[in-house]
Amino acid sequence: MIFNQSITEKIIRFLHSNYEDFKIFDIQNNYLLPGFIDSHTHLLAQGIEFQRVDLSGCSALDECMEKMKKEKEREIIFGVNWDDTFWKNGKKDDLNRRILDEISKNKPVIMRRICGHFAVCNTKALDYISRDWKIVDRKNGWLYEDAALYLNRIFKPTFEMYKMGLELATRRALSMGITSVHEITDTNGFKIYQSLKKRLKLRVALYLTDGFPSMIDAGIQSNFGDDFLKFVGLKIFMDGSIGAQTAALRRPYKNTKNRGKILLSEKKLFKIIKMAQDYSIQLMIHSIGDRSTDLILKIFRRAGIGKNPLRHRLEHIEILDSWQIREIARLNLIASMQPNFLRWQIPGNMYEKNLGRQYKDMNCFKKIKDAGIKLVFGSDCMPLGPLYGINLAVNHPFNENRLEPVEAINLYTQTPPFATFDENNKGMIAEGKLADIIVVDKNPLVKENLDDIKILKIFVGGDLVYQNRY
Predict the structure, then answer these.
(1) Which CATH number, 3.20.20.70, 3.30.830.10, 3.20.20.140, 3.40.50.1450, labels domain 159-457?
(2) pTM value?
(3) φ and ψ at residue 293, rounded to 5 degrees
(4) What is the rounded CA–CA span in Å between residue 111 and residue 148?
(5) Which side of the chain, N or C, has fewer Cβ within a 10 Å radius?
(6) Strands 334-337, 313-316: pairing kind
(7) φ and ψ at 200, to 5 degrees?
(8) CA-to-CA distance for 301 and 21, rounded, in angstroms?
(9) DSSP 3-state assignment of 82?
């Protein structure tokens, strides 16, 4: 069972992580669930963002600018998570190098969009960005894709910032019932995690964005490590995001001729897939647009991955047609999706504004699940919160793709371990499984409860690592 009903006046015994004794906890009249697994995170990066200027609550460009100006004493004025979708005035194109120069001409000023695929820099910040970075509009200070995604490689956080960031992000994740993450970082992040491993309170399965040569040289294959920290695979990007209008579409974005950007050629993608096959490394491939996914499926067919024993996975795949769904099922690929993105799929919101009528067919969770595809849920840290994602998936804006609560819960508990080769020890409350368990105050199988469920306790390996003190 993935969910144990309320256990009234009973004592629950959890095997302690050192396997030498039993600890006894009375959960009173509450409910047990397996620990949530977030299948797509950037915890380390989010921990750094917690120490920057948070623009997520700003409802206008002017409000963003005022908040940035209040931080002028910082050495680097770095704003994150602005979302023009919800601005009442001003638009993304109004934000440029010259406007940020008004905040400071002597210090780097950066504002990165919530999707991470687009950022704006002032003139001083552009001086730090070498000509080697692609897709940089220096006239306007606009950064796309790699140059935006990897700003931490240019404006490098200190080790102390990483240490504090991991603590902050872990605390946030635990408070939301997350006991394991599929974490995306780079080789520097890998080193940070290794150096801080003894501090980890949740389990981390790592996917690297820049590690192919070094992983091959070291002979490291997928599933190398232990239950708390291990390397699973490599992440590559095939396109961008809808908000940045860089996701690669078959049809142009609404009222434009722009069809987004394919970031890897067929030849390059084929080479990467063949190398992954040769060296037993799982691939996590970012693809949001249908044109991007078309290309990936074509190359996977050509590469001959059989039944996909390495468990290659597609991230996001928000725009799919029936043929693509059948092909993903035939290739036995894993679909990793983010129900929290549904907040942009509400009628009249960002997806409809960018895509027109096509937006209604996006994030077709029910069709994917019914096709027999291994589907896992995550957040991309936009924002963290499995209960938030479960609620959105159950209340999908379009009825044909709504899930039942038990289905959505399974996609955060039972199915994610398969993606990281952990199905034998995670995902259920059962003998022989890791004692990663959460206690909640209401029955999550009841749809009406999903709005206000509280996480009460978190156990990882039988150890109490979080307790909500209401």
Answers:
(1) 3.20.20.140
(2) 0.89
(3) -65, -35
(4) 10
(5) C
(6) parallel
(7) -65, 135
(8) 51
(9) strand
